[in-house]
Specification:
Helix content: 25-40%
Distance between the termini: 79 Å
CATH superfamily: Nucleotide cyclase, GGDEF domain
Order of helices and strands: HEEHHEEHEEHEHEEH
Number of helices: 7
Strand content: 15-25%
CATH topology: Alpha-Beta Plaits
CATH architecture: 2-Layer Sandwich
Radius of gyration: 21 Å
Shape: globular
Bound molecules: zinc ion
Largest sheet: 9 strands, mixed
CATH class: Alpha Beta
Length: about 280
């Protein structure tokens, strides 16, 4: 009987895996692929995960033809893959209406932050209008971006004949995915611990992580070069929604993308940790 055979196979598989156990090797950098060796996982500390969620994808799929949805998925994932690559994400995975990248090593927190804000800006300014035009539909593509940081372990899982896939265990990917759903359309949401990192960095040299250029979109603001200006905090704090099972008490969200005039300067300052000259 088929069910008996299945039960026997499942039990044999679990016996096998239980015998192998979980062996963990430490590593500093996020690998492009996880180990496929039996029982071996890699542990990487201080990984920053950036998760981008295509907002309203269920409604999109039920409203437009599969071909139009295909254009949306293609533009969204291709654009965000390029952005993740340009900010040197160590690992990238596409999940249809979502995509995430992992950053590790020195400066990963800053690369991830600049990447998240760039994703939000590019979707609004480049991807969404292009999709509307090319697909001839009245639909605004929008993204929610979540960011968290912590330790991850990874390995490949899969049987012969099924696709081997990286499996990431640990908080950051999961929490970043949840944060991307907390983020309103075209907003970035980061965990309490992530924002604590921004605040420490902002006290040193990284004002651009938290503070605005002060021009309010008027393009006449001070930017980073001024000693003082009418700058304001770009992030607001809210209580973490109870239902999501987040392991921190507050979420920090950011509405604005890059300023048209000062954005390039601010992005550069976040990546290099240097104030621009002048
Ligand atoms: Zn500005």
């Amino acid at each position: 009987m088929i069910l008996d055979e299945i039960t026997t196979s499942v039990v044999a598989q679990l016996d096998d895996q239980a015998k192998l156990g979980v062996q963990v090797e430490n590593q500093n950098e996020v690998p492009e692929t996880g180990p496929a060796n039996r029982g071996l996982w890699l542990r990487i500390p201080n990984v920053t995960a950036v998760f981008a969620d295509l907002k309203g994808s269920t409604a999109l799929s039920s409203t437009v033809s599969p071909e139009v949805a295909a254009v949306a998925y293609t533009y969204f994932n291709r654009a965000l893959s390029v952005i993740l690559e340009r900010f040197s994400a160590g690992y990238v995975e596409i999940q249809g209406d979502g995509i995430f990248g992992l950053f590790s090593g020195k400066g990963s927190m800053f690369h991830a932050a600049a990447c998240a804000i760039t994703m939000r800006s590019q979707v609004e300014e480049i991807v969404a209008p292009r999709f509307k035009r090319d697909a001839s539909v009245q639909w605004d593509l929008k993204v929610g971006v979540g960011v968290d940081r912590g330790t991850l372990i990874v390995r490949q899982l899969g049987l012969r004949g099924t696709k081997l896939n990286e499996v990431w265990a640990g908080k950051p990917v999961n929490m970043a995915a949840k944060l991307s759903s907390v983020a309103a359309p075209n907003q970035v949401a980061v965990s309490e611990r992530m924002f604590a990192g921004y605040e420490v960095a902002a006290k040193m040299r990284q004002r651009a992580l938290i503070w605005s250029c002060g021009c309010n979109g008027n393009n006449r603001g001070a930017g980073l070069s001024a000693a003082s200006g009418q700058t304001s905090k770009l992030w607001t704090e809210q209580a973490a929604p109870k239902s999501l099972g987040l392991d921190f008490g507050s979420v920090h969200t950011r509405k604005s993308g890059w300023c048209q005039r000062h954005g390039a300067e601010f992005c550069e300052a976040i990546l290099t940790g240097r104030r621009p000259a002048g």
